[in-house]
Request: fold
Amino acid sequence: MQSIFDFIMSLQETKCPRCGKNTVITDVDSQEVFCSKCGVVLDEKVNDSRSERIFTNSTVNRSHTGDKTTLTRHDRGLSTMINPFDKDSSGNPLSASMKSSLKRLRKWDNRSHMKNNDERNLQQALSELLKLKEKLSLPDAVVEKASYIYRKALEKKLVRGRSIAALIAAALYAACRESETPRTLQEIASSMGIKRKELTASYRLIFKELELKIPVADSVSCIAKIASNAELSEKTKRHAMKILKKAEKQNALAGKHPMGLAASALYLASIDLEENRTQKDIADAAGITEVTIRNRCKGLRTIL
Reply:
C-alpha cells in the first residue's frame, strides 16, 4: 500500500506534458488540475478533499457539499433562502434602499415556497412533530418514519376535515410501534395537548386506510423505561426480564397490556431482590393503575 509521503512525492514529480515544468497544481475551487506555467488543464472535476464546515446558525449540520435531505422538513431540505443578514460579502452594512429591496424579496421568496394548501399543512404538521421529538426524546429514525406516514396520509386526503395535531400524533405513535419504541398513547396525547380519544380515533383511521403492519408490542422493551422512572437497579431489571421470558414460553402474555406486564414483573423482581418499592411507585412510573399490577401479578405468580 502506497504511503502518504510517497503519494505527495509523486504529485510533486508530475511534469506538465506541454512545457515539461514541475508546476502542476490543484485548484479546489475550480476543481481542476493545471500547470501554473503554461496554463494547460490536465484534469477536471476533481474530488474536494477538504474537511466539512459546520454552520452554527442552521438547525442541522451543513457542509460545503450541501444540507442533507430529510423527510422532517416540508421541502426535504432542498430549498434555498436569502441571507437574513443585511450585509454585503465584505461585511459592510447595506444602504436603506437595498435593505428595503431585500426585505421585499425575502417575503416573496418565502411565499413562493408554499405552492398549495397541502404544503402549508405539511409545514405546520412537521413543525409540531419536531416539538414532540424534543418533548419525548425520540430518535431521528422514529421521527423520519412518522414524517413518511403523515405524507402518505396527506396523499390519500385523510387530513381534510380532521385535526392536524391528532393526525401527526397518530403518525408518531404508529412510528413508535413499528420501531418498538416504548411510548404510550397517553404520553403522546399529553405532549401534544389533545385528548386520548381523539388520538386513538386518528390512529385507527391511518392504520386502516394506509394498511400499516404494526408488530405486537413487546413487554420486555418497556422494562427499561419503567425501571428508570422508578429508580430500580440493573439487577432488578434483568430479573424482571427473566420473569417475562419464562411467562412468554408458557404463552401467558397473549392479550395483556405490555406496560402492565412489565410493571408487574418489576414489582415481583423488586420483592425477590428486597428493593423496597410499593405498587403505587411502580404504577406511577409505568402510567397505569395499581389494580392492573395486582391482576397481572396473580397470573405471573402462578407461572413462577
About this structure: The longest strand covers residues 24-27. The domain at 17-58 is CATH 2.20.25 (N-terminal domain of TfIIb). The chain has a mean pLDDT of 80.
